[in-house]
Inverse folding.
């Protein structure tokens, strides 16, 4: 089953342009289905939202680094806890200034949680693609939020 996870995530990553490995070597990680790094992220200076968005970007990157093939879907769920905590800090610190982005963040987190629960219940190529898609969407929206917040930091 772990081989299926690696192959699936490798196939999903191919469309993303990630460089986290290849399905053939078995080193593909979820990072290639989300975002490994971000440039232009808030540095943590200025408003409290700057540091909380930087922390969120770090935890989202860590979520993307989970090797689902080696660690299983439960590892994604475990890393998701840190993302959720950091997202709550962002929502608090943004104080409504980035309401549209934080609403999207909440939606994205719910989608990742749902996809993980579905994959845990029925691990298949389709449900695992759903996890990868949800993580990619979360990563993209966190990058957008990070970019938007960077101008105020």
């Amino acid at each position: 089953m772990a081989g299926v996870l690696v192959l699936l995530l490798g196939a999903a990553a191919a469309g993303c342009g990630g460089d986290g490995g290849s399905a053939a070597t078995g080193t593909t990680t979820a990072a290639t289905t989300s975002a490994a790094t971000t440039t232009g992220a808030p540095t943590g200076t200025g408003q409290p939202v700057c540091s909380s968005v930087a922390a969120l970007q770090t935890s989202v990157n860590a979520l993307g680094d989970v090797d689902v093939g080696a660690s299983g879907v439960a590892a994604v769920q475990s890393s998701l806890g840190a993302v959720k905590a950091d997202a709550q800090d962002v929502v608090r610190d943004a104080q409504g200034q980035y309401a549209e982005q934080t609403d999207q963040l909440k939606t994205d987190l719910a989608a990742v949680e749902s996809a993980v629960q579905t994959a845990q219940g029925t691990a298949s190529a389709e449900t695992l693609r759903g996890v990868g898609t949800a993580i990619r969407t979360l990563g993209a929206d966190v990058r957008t939020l990070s970019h938007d917040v960077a101008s105020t930091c």
Observations:
- Helices lie at 2-14, 48-64, 68-71, 73-94, 99-121, 125-150.
- The chain has a mean pLDDT of 75.
- The chain has one domain: 2-150.
